[in-house]
Request: fold
Amino acid sequence: MAQETNPYRPPQSDVTPADDKEVWEVASKWRRFGTFLIDYICIVAFGYVFGIVIAFGFGAEGIATLRKIPRLILGCVLVFCYYVFLESLWARTPGKVVFRTFVVDDLGEKPSFGQVIKRTLCRFIPFEAFSFFGERGWHDSISDTRVVRRKP
Reply:
């Protein structure tokens, strides 16, 4: 039997593995600042929506209960819920979507839930925002995460 007509011969196509490894670069400080501004606006909007839902759902009792909670505590809870929910599900927030950035761990993978919790809690360290004048911010370095974007 000729090799060309043998149905059991090995395939003759040239198989090369696909390079599915994406190339990332660390997001610039200005890109991160823009992300922060958009996320801040979204957190304020989230707070308003939360208040409206409480008012419609629970009426005057709900509003009275909200007023008993110190604003600092309520704000911290809203910020915590915002970042943990979005970064644990999609590794992105609306600000990161606009600026095309992602949160990844040091290996370039989606961060674990524990890393997202640690990252979010670090945001409450006093003067943490000024840590970005250095090379890497505290909520990145302590949680072993980075904010990156795809290289064009």
